[in-house]
């Protein structure tokens, strides 16, 4: 039994890309992070008198910088889930959606409304409903928007997302959605409060992150995933060998929609607020940027991109104040010019070239093509 | 039913361009039929019209006696037509094995015909774990043909198998197509008249979107006038 179980794990972890033990090491590091943070940057006074070493560590993890950095990591994990879901569409199926925020925002609104005063649903029932809503939503909008291709598909997804943004902002549903204020302070169960139990919430986010990662990996390495990649490579070719590519694109759409909705719900629970901003195109562009920086068509890329963008945003804002987005834009341009396949993509292709990047940079600034 | 494929006077538009203005042809069972004609005559569009990538506006396409025009591509190919497009259409990000396995219509197709395929193209067995994009041009062309052999197909459409290949590879390709034609009927598009004349039993010439002449290959080889007039080759 044990042997077959470990084989199963090996199978899940050994796709293409990095070796399984690298993932396990990273997951282990993430799992130990609260303890490490408690030991190093937590407030030593936070440990209560007479608490054991382990108990004291956990108490210290709920204090000072340890708590703050767990919050940072929680947001990174949420963004990672969102970016991974986006890459299932963009990187593995070749669908450029400008409406992915629709799922993220709807997930957030759904959980907030369902556990809120009007419905008062138990938490897990509401979470289940979030998944059901995401499946229905992605099925409906997938079937409608996948009828067209390329840039038209992008425009249709954009239109659907704007529709939901307008719905959320409209005064007509203020009672449920809070209109342009959004919803704040809805009753997140006390045992999941990110302010009271930061470490617990961290593990919730980590578990969800790992589950989504494994599920996405399983999907991509399955025969269905191979057809998705074939569709991205060349849709006509995939049809020629007898696949109705529509269904494979729809599967990608639904998987991406559900994962994004879970990220949105988690984000709403963490912040105890959800606003129409979660439904804007900017949210989608965040996911796009994370995916491009990290590497399109890899699962690690979006995770790395999410981490980098979150950290860059934090540090740049501290160093440069309100104008940080200017610096951020320049850094983003540099990454696109020098690492056109993203960080992971460039590493895998071993295609980093100063000279080629420098030539692209000069071309960008002068508008002239490099000689030769 | 003597003809695997019959095409009756199809007309195909791409956008506003009238590409095929009346193409008819027959592919007898067990034969190798070749479509000849100059660049831009409409040979590739004829193949694409048959499998529904550019569906014909009028006319009929009969596969084993049943009309297939207007059906979606995946249904047409699913009935047993293998299509090898021009320009070595392999999936660049999938390995050789995945490229073959993805073409299975029934589970076990590859296991059933794997030996035959690797006998035809021994190189592919050596390269089985390599991504399609890493193969050379000739190897990619072999993979594209091999992929069409994985499921059980009664008709293979092969578009320009010799395009851009080294002479020694062309020899291998001719030999492979000759061997596989023992099991399936082939409709071939080929610019290389020498290759076409070595392989094919029958021919149809397409000129400016119309089929102008069909017949036995053996007769065409002797017919210098027709060759000069429509093919500009000797």
Task: Report what the structure shows.
The complex is a heterodimer of chains A (372) and B (234). Chain A is built from 17 helices and 2 strands. Chain A has 372 residues and is mostly helical. Among the domains of chain A are: 30 residues, no CATH class; 224 residues, no CATH class. A two-stranded antiparallel ribbon of chain A has the order 1-2. Chain A is globular, with a radius of gyration of 22 Å. Chain A starts with a helix and ends in a 6-residue tail after the last helix. The N terminus of chain A is likely disordered. Chain B has one domain: P-loop containing nucleotide triphosphate hydrolases (Rossmann fold, 3-Layer(aba) Sandwich). Chain B has a 6-stranded mixed β-sheet, sandwiched between helices. Chains A and B meet through helix 10 and helix 11 of A and helix 2 of B.
Short characterization:
The complex is a heterodimer of chains A (372) and B (234). Chain A has 372 residues and is an all-alpha fold.
How would the blueprint of this fold be written?
The complex is a heterodimer of chains A (372) and B (234).
Chain A (H helix, E strand, L loop, with lengths): L1 H12 L6 H21 L12 H9 L2 H30 L7 H15 L7 H23 L4 H20 L4 H4 L5 E2 L13 H24 L1 H11 L1 H6 L4 H27 L1 E2 L6 H14 L5 H21 L3 H15 L3 H8 L4 H13 L6
Helix pairs in contact in A: 2-3, 2-4, 2-9, 4-9, 4-12, 4-13, 4-14, 5-6, 5-7, 5-12, 6-12, 9-10, 9-12, 10-12, 13-14, 13-16, 14-15, 14-16
Chain B lengths: L2 E12 L2 E12 L3 E5 L6 H8 L7 E6 L2 E2 L5 H6 L2 E4 L11 H6 L7 H12 L1 H5 L10 H13 L5 E5 L7 H14 L4 E5 L3 H7 L2 E6 L2 E7 H6 L1 H8 L3
Parallel strand pairs in B: 3-8, 3-9, 6-7, 7-8
Antiparallel strand pairs in B: 1-2, 1-4, 4-5, 9-10
């Amino acid at each position: 039994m044990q042997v077959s179980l470990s084989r199963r794990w090996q199978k899940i972890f050994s796709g293409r890309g990095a070796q399984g033990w690298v993932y396990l090491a990273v997951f282990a590091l993430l799992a130990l992070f609260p303890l490490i943070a408690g030991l190093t940057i937590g407030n030593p006074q936070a440990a209560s008198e007479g608490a054991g070493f382990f108990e004291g560590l956990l108490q210290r993890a709920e204090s000072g910088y340890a708590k703050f950095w767990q919050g940072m990591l929680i947001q990174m994990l949420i963004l990672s889930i969102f970016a991974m879901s986006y890459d299932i569409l963009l990187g593995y199926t070749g669908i450029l959606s400008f409406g992915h925020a629709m799922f993220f925002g709807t997930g957030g609104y759904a959980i907030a409304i369902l556990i809120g005063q009007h419905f008062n649903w138990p938490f897990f029932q509401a979470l289940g409903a979030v998944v059901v809503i995401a499946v229905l939503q992605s099925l409906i909008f997938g079937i409608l928007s996948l009828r067209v291709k390329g840039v038209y598909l992008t425009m249709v997804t954009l239109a659907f997302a704007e529709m939901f943004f307008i719905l959320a902002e409209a005064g007509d549903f203020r009672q449920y959605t809070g209109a342009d204020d959004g919803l704040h302070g809805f009753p997140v169960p006390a045992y999941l409060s990110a302010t009271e139990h930061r470490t617990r919430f961290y593990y919730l986010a980590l578990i969800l992150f790992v589950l989504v990662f494994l599920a996405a990996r399983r999907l991509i390495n399955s025969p269905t995933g191979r057809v998705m990649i074939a569709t991205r490579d060349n849709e006509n070719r995939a049809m020629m060998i007898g696949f109705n590519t529509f269904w494979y694109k729809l599967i990608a759409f639904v998987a991406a929609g559900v994962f994004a909705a879970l990220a949105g719900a988690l984000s709403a629970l963490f912040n105890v607020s959800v606003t129409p901003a979660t439904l804007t195109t900017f949210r989608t562009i965040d996911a796009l940027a994370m995916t491009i920086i990290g590497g399109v068509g890899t699962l690690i890329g979006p995770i790395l991109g999410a981490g980098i963008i979150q950290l860059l945003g934090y540090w740049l804002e501290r160093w440069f104040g309100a104008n940080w987005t200017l610096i951020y834009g320049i850094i983003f341009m540099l990454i696109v010019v020098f690492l056109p396949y993203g960080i992971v993509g460039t590493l895998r292709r071993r295609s980093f070239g100063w000279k080629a990047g420098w030539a692209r940079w000069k071309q960008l600034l002068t508008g002239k093509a490099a000689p030769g | 039913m003597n003809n695997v494929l019959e095409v009756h006077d199809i007309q195909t538009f791409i956008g506003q361009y009238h590409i095929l203005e009346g193409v008819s042809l027959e592919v007898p069972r067990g034969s190798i039929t070749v479509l000849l004609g100059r660049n831009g005559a409409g040979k590739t569009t004829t193949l694409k019209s048959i499998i529904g990538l550019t569906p014909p506006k009028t006319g009929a396409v009969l596969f084993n006696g049943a009309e297939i025009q207007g059906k979606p591509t995946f249904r047409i190919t699913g009935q047993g037509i293998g299509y090898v497009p021009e320009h070595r259409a392999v999936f660049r990000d999938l390995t050789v094995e995945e490229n073959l396995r993805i073409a299975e219509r029934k589970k076990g197709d590859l296991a059933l015909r794997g030996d035959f395929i690797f006998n035809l193209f021994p190189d592919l067995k050596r390269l089985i774990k390599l991504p399609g994009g890493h193969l050379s041009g000739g190897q990619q062309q072999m993979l594209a043909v091999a992929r069409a052999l994985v499921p059980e197909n009664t008709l293979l459409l092969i578009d320009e198998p010799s395009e851009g290949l080294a002479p020694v590879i062309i020899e291998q390709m001719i030999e492979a197509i000759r061997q596989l034609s023992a099991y399936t009927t082939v409709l071939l598009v080929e610019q290389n008249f020498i290759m076409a004349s070595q392989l094919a039993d029958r021919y149809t010439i397409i000129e400016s979107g119309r089929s102008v002449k069909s017949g036995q290959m053996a007769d065409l080889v002797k017919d210098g006038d027709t060759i000069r007039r429509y093919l500009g080759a000797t």
